[in-house]
Amino acid sequence: MGNFDNNRFRSTNQEWETPDAIFEPLNQEFRFTLDVAASKNNHKCQRYITEKDDALSKSWAGEVCWLNPPYRQVKLWIKKAYIESQNGAVVVCLVQARTNTNWWHDYCMKGEVRFIRGRPKFKGCIHGLPQPLAIVIFRGYGN
Prior knowledge:
The protein has helices at about 20-30, 75-85, 100-105; strands at about 35-40, 50, 65, 90-95, 110-115, 135-140. By secondary structure, the protein is an alpha/beta fold.
């Protein structure tokens, strides 16, 4: 299999900033009003919710949300995104395409799915992410 070293992709950092090449076309399409999983250093929208602010406990109703969730808690974030879409939010999510998981089938399959080609490199990373990525869109009120 060659000299593939999976350890070079492992990281405790859950705050890699979304590449502009992924975010900007989506922002042009959706005009995001809120980044729901951000930090002072990686937010993509003028208005954003930090980990300290606890977006999982807040309403996103009426917002057009960008979500690049911390991958360790992706199940919680995808469920929240879907629920908030049922309350009137539009939520656009950047997630690993884990098509074999319960959370993917229970929630992502209820939205619009766009698969990302290639291995985008997140800001601050040396290498592109080896896992396949997808954009999942929950458009609100039944999608």
